[in-house]
Write a structure and sequence with these properties.
single chain, 419 residues, alpha/beta, 8-stranded parallel sheet, 6-stranded antiparallel sheet
């Protein structure tokens, strides 16, 4: 009896061990089951460090406290934006001589990062922090190489909730194993931290094909390509990259592991009102992280309304987590489509559909499609809503004509709810 019980317990322990081992190998941290939403400093505030000349713009404790406050007071937190993320240029130029730990800039972060994290958490928000896999960050501050375990534990000690790991000053060949190793070390701290990786962007630049299966296993999200800049040209280059490469990129986005086309430009200098709507719509179609980078105190009301549009955000955050695709182009009008909930009992998806104008001929362009042209084939038809105006447009059958009129460099965006 004792021997049988021992064999049973031994087998049970082995079974439990086998069940646990895959979790230890991959990231599998249960985080980012929907695309992360928040605010990050880089695109708008870059590496401004002169707080005498630019007291409201320099990378400092005050900047991030102010934006944590604004996320709440301006209604962004209620809309789902929850992360406050420090990008590059927050460090001293050297590690602590005795402990070798990273040191926040003593003048710009005089109270240290624990105090800042407390402020952010007290607002009901989460705290994100940038680092780099290489010897230095892109702006020349200390990177994590040779200190990965120490830095992972330091982030946990600072109550970090989100880590963005860049890839400057690093060997490309080291990234394939180094990024997963840092993710494993973050997990071992016991503190849940969303892990944003950058190694695919560096591989693409070097002409190498990213290993998406490894990315899904080790990262919660990853930058695929170039940094976004504050211009329509930069935005459309990124949209074109994702459209042209969607066959190899789109299948790998999903709950817990997202493709990241980079930050939202809305509220800055480079995009018009219509172009701002365009970025928000396509990011929602792509199930992209919605990470703003702007001065929230300066965002105009009409742009704020786009950023907080609950119907558009609901598309981005749809529980199915299926990334959309560019499905056709006609007369320089692109059609982007994403399957979303609700799904009928017969398995027919609802869809978000964006019509993107690549035209510049001065007037809104009227273009008709049949619902079937859009690849929507539910026999019982669809109830259609304009996601920017919230206007209900009625019920359309598959052979119905659907007409939209799109402003130059603009977008129209609809939800087709399967009946």
């Amino acid at each position: 009896m004792y021997g049988t019980r021992s064999i049973f317990l031994g087998g049970l322990c082995l079974l439990l061990l086998l069940q646990v081992l895959p979790v230890a190998v991959g990231l599998d941290n249960g985080l980012a089951l929907k695309p992360p939403m928040g605010w990050m400093s880089w695109e708008r505030f870059r590496c401004i460090t002169d707080c005498k000349l630019y007291p409201n713009e320099c990378i400092s404790e005050n900047l991030f406290r102010r934006h944590a406050d604004l996320l709440v007071s301006e209604g962004y937190a209620d809309a789902g934006y929850e992360y406050v993320i420090i990008d590059d240029c927050w460090l001293e130029k050297n590690r602590d001589n005795d402990t070798q730990k990273l040191v926040p800039d003593r003048k710009r972060f005089p109270n240290g990062l624990n105090s800042l994290a407390d402020h952010i958490h007290d607002k009901g928000l989460k705290f994100g922090l940038y680092q780099d896999f290489g010897t230095n960050t892109c702006a020349g501050y200390p990177g994590v190489i040779k200190h990965m375990q120490l830095d992972a534990q330091t982030f946990a000690d600072w109550d970090v909730d989100y880590v963005k790991l860049d890839g400057c000053y690093a060997n490309l060949t080291d990234m394939v194993n180094g990024y997963p190793e840092f993710g494993r070390l973050l997990n071992e701290t016991g503190r849940p931290m969303v892990y944003s990786c950058s190694w695919p962007a560096y591989q693409e630049e070097a002409g190498e094909m990213p290993d998406y299966e490894s990315l899904k296993k080790h990262c919660n999200l990853w930058r695929n390509w170039d940094d976004i800049d504050d211009s329509l040209e930069s935005l459309m280059q990124i949209i074109d990259y994702f459209g042209k490469n969607q066959d190899r990129i789109q299948p790998h986005g999903g709950p817990g592991h997202w493709n990241d086309p980079d930050m939202l430009l809305l509220g800055n200098y480079g995009l018009s009102y219509d172009q701002s709507k365009l970025q928000m719509a396509i990011w929602a179609i792509m199930a992209a992280p919605l990470i703003m980078s702007n001065d929230l105190a300066e965002v105009r009301p009409e742009i704020k309304a786009i950023l907080q549009n609950r119907d558009v955000i609901a598309v981005d955050q749809d529980e199915l987590g299926i990334q959309g695709r560019r499905v056709l182009t006609r007369n320089l009008i692109e059609v982007w489509k994403r399957p979303i909930t609700p799904v009928t009992k017969g398995g027919e998806h609802s869809y978000a559909v964006a019509f993107v104008s690549r035209r510049d001929d001065g007037a809104p362009y009227r273009i008709p499609f049949t619902v079937k042209d859009l690849g929507l084939n539910n026999a019982k038809g669809y109830k259609v809503q304009d996601l920017y105006s919230s206007r209900q447009l009625g019920v359309y059958q598959t052979d119905s004509q659907f007409i939209t009129r799109v402003n130059p460099n603009g977008v129209t965006f609809y939800k087709f709810t399967a009946l």
